[in-house]
Hints:
Blueprint: H1 3-23, H2 26-32, H3 34-38, H4 42-49, H5 59-66, E1 71-77, E2 80-106, E3 112-137, E4 140-146
Antiparallel strand pairs: 1-2, 2-3, 3-4
Helix pairs in contact: 2-5, 4-5
Amino acid sequence: MKNGARGLANVVFLAAAVAAAGCAGPAWRIRRNRDMFAAFPPEVQANVRAGRIELGYTRDMVFIALGRPHRVYERVTREGVTDVWTYSGTRYATRYAPVDASYWYLDRHGDVRLSYGWSWVDAGYGSEYQSMRVEFATDAVTAIESLRR
């Protein structure tokens, strides 16, 4: 891919990611759950708008602030059963990597030829990581674990 086309592809990808993130943020969830949000105390509303949570928040407060959890675990201990909501992120990277390939090409006489060998390609990959864990006992947050970078 030529540099100009790669730059255009990156801009299109970034615009799509920003548009998707805008739909899934706290403001979008507040609009979808106006009555529920209006019942929250003012200090909770401010935190939820900013995407922050604190101990004691309900599941509804956490959902509007952070969205749907990526995974839900059930923890069973001697003290009882708790739910653990986890939120994940993805790190993306690209690298220029060699691949063993065959390809068709036109030689200098205009004839089609088959060639074998190495080609270099832009390889993109992502790795998921857990960024936050929120633990609930009954309907209140009892523990919050956040990834420290």
